[in-house]
Amino acid sequence: MFIDIRTSLFATYLFLTGDSGALSNWSYLNNPTLTQILAEIELFYMLPFQRRWKEWFPEIIYYYANLYDIQKEVKAMMDRDEWNTDAFPELKNDLLKILHIKTDKQNSDN
Fold first, then answer.
1. For residues 67 and 76, is the Cβ–Cβ distance under 8 A?
2. What is the mean pLDDT of the chain?
3. Which residues make Cβ contacts (< 8 Å) with residue 56, sequence separation at least 6?
């Protein structure tokens, strides 16, 4: 929707009225410009009381994921060697226990 000025204005209007569907296909990591625009909208075009609305900005976001899909993604990350980082070691170990995934180290210990 952001290829043409007319559709990008329409997408911006939809976003400002609460419909974020136009942004759902965008990755924030690969589009820093989009992230800067969204941050500016929140900082400069919203009143302070709007930024505190729990309906728009909840403190907790619940996410449901299928166990099989999580196991599949974690194993794929292990195969791509994206899992073996130093970030969040305790959290990753707890997640592996919950998902019943054994690592090579755990297999050699048994």
1. no
2. 79
3. 50
75 contacts 101 by C-beta, under 8 angstroms? yes
CA 83 to chain centre: 17
**Which distant-in-sequence residues (6+ apart) come within 8 Å of 87 by Cβ?**
none
Higher pLDDT, 16 or 105: 16
Q: Rounded distance, CA 35 to CA 93, Å? A: 32
For 54-87, how does the pLDDT look when each residue is reduced to its tens digit (9 = 90+)?
A: 887 788 877 788 899 999 999 999 999 888 888 8
